[in-house]
Amino acid sequence: AYPGCFVAVTKRGRPGGHRASCPRSGALRSRAGALERSAARVCREAAATVNTHMLLRDLNVHADRPDDRRLEVVANGLLHWGGAQLAVDTTLVSALTSTAQPRRHRGSGAFARRDKERTYPELVRSGRCRLVVLAIEVGGRWSSEAAGFVRLLARAKARSSPPLLRSTAVSAWVGRWSALRSAAAARAFAASLLALPAARASSLDGEVPLLSAALAAHCEGPAEPSRLPAPGR
After folding, report:
1. pLDDT tens digits for 138-188?
2. How many angstroms separate the CA atoms of 75 and 87, rounded?
3. Contact, 21 vs 1, CB < 8 A?
4. pTM for this model (two decimals)
5. Cα(29)–Cα(83) distance, integer angstroms
């Protein structure tokens, strides 16, 4: 969570929306749980072995300082990046700064990446464990890194599908996992604004669906424009 994660602007042009932006209200941290559970669920469905809330010092990396920093999701057994262990960190961030100004340079996705690299510098230079930052803007737009990661997971998952169905399977898994992540982010944000218990925002658990179920859900879904960045952007 970030100070000024979302800033509403009043008619007079002054920042507003206390629960949306104040880091001391506890609302920002309450959104993290749903995003973490959705990321863990996506990695499990992609056939990874997942651990959550692991202490950084318990990993096989050289920690700069022996503190209590934790990793939200640690995924093992995926084919990406030569089979490296993945430390997946999720965040919900605004396209605006705490002063209601648009983020410059490369946007909120790059801002989230820089912030996490400062938090976990050991993972930036580690060859064994790779840092993956899944950032979603308030309003639904994904960072390029988050969108690319889900597509890579879908392509790896689709390798076990019949050759004629692989392209469709990739689209089905991307659609399912994108919906899981986007719904978790939207519900968590709404629950934090309404001061609802975090447990009501999202409950992601259950068996991994069969490919046939994912394909059926993909075919029945509404044909709405995606908020994922276009390939290559």
Report:
1. 777 899 999 999 999 999 999 989 999 999 999 999 999 999 999 888 888
2. 7
3. no
4. 0.76
5. 31
